[in-house]
Design goal:
Number of strands: 11
Strand content: 25-35%
Helix content: 10-25%
Order of helices and strands: EHEEHEEEEEEEEHHH
C-alpha cells in the first residue's frame, strides 16, 4: 500500500533508540495506539516549536511522516544506552506539569553520569486510524525537501523538522528515504516532557519483549504500572 505524502508536514527520521530496535519500538507504539483509540506519543530529541500550529490550516491536523534512518547500524549510545529514563508528565499550555495519559510510554537515554540533569526531551502527539508498521510504503527524495520555517535546504543531521516539498526546481541526486507511516498531529501537537524516573535495568531491557506478549488492554495496565517505579 502506497502512502500519499503531503506538501507540508513534520518529518521524523526514526531508528533504533535507547537499546530498542525500530520494529520493537513500532510494535509497542501500535499497542499504545490501540489502547489510546488511535492516539500515541512519539518521543523526539528536539522541539519543532510553535511553527507547527501554522500547518493546522482550515481545521486540518498537520501530518507527521515517519521515515527510517539510512544509517546501516545504530550508534553505540542508541544500541547500548546504559540507563533508561521514563518520562511521566509534560508541560501544558500554561507551563504546568500534567501526567501523560496512562497508555503512553516515552523513554530516552539517561545522562551518562549520575546526578547530571537530563536534556530536554519532547514528544509528538500523533493520531492514526491505521495500524503502525515498519514496512516501507513509499519513498521521498531528500533534495525535494526544504525547511518550512527558513526556506533553506535541510541538513542531513536533521532528525525532526517541519518541511515543505518543492514543487519544481529540486536539484537531482541525493538519497531517497523510505516512508514507513503517516499520522496526524493533534493538539497540542508537541509537548515538552517532564518528571523523568530511572527505570530498573531489567525493566528497561525487556520493554520490547514484554510488549510483544500483550494486547491493547494488557499494554494499558503495563504502561500505567511503569509509572510506579
Amino acid at each position: 500500500m502506497s502512502i500519499e505524502i503531503p506538501e507540508l508536514f513534520c518529518w521524523a527520521k526514526v531508528g533504533a533508540d535507547s537499546g530498542e530496535g525500530l520494529r520493537a519500538i513500532i510494535c509497542r507504539k501500535e499497542l499504545e495506539r490501540q489502547a489510546g483509540g488511535g492516539r500515541f506519543y512519539w518521543g523526539v530529541g528536539n522541539s519543532v516549536g510553535p511553527a507547527v500550529t501554522e500547518l493546522a490550516v482550515d481545521g486540518r491536523h498537520p501530518a507527521v511522516v515517519f521515515s527510517r534512518m539510512r544509517t546501516a547500524a545504530p550508534v553505540k549510545q542508541d544500541a547500548e544506552p546504559g540507563a533508561l529514563l521514563l518520562w511521566r508528565a509534560c508541560l501544558d499550555r500554561h507551563g504546568n506539569a500534567e501526567p501523560l495519559p496512562d497508555h503512553v510510554v516515552v523513554t530516552s537515554r539517561a545522562p551518562a553520569h549520575a546526578g547530571n540533569t537530563p536534556r530536554h526531551h519532547y514528544a509528538l502527539v500523533c493520531f492514526s486510524a491505521e495500524p503502525l508498521s515498519a514496512e516501507p510504503k513509499g519513498a521521498m527524495r531528500f533534495n525535494e525537501l526544504i525547511n518550512y520555517t527558513s526556506g533553506r535546504p535541510l541538513g542531513y543531521s536533521h532528525v525532526t523538522a517541519l518541511v515543505k516539498r518543492r514543487a519544481a526546481g529540486a536539484p537531482h541526486g541525493g538519497p531517497d528515504y523510505p516512508v514507513l507511516m503517516v499520522a496526524a498531529l493533534q493538539p497540542p501537537y508537541v509537548v515538552q516532557l517532564q518528571d523523568p524516573v530511572l527505570l530498573p535495568p531489567e525493566v528497561a531491557m525487556s520493554l520490547g519483549s514484554t510488549a510483544a506478549s500483550l494486547d491493547a488492554e494488557g499494554w494499558r495496565r503495563f504502561a500505567s504500572g511503569l509509572r510506579k517505579h
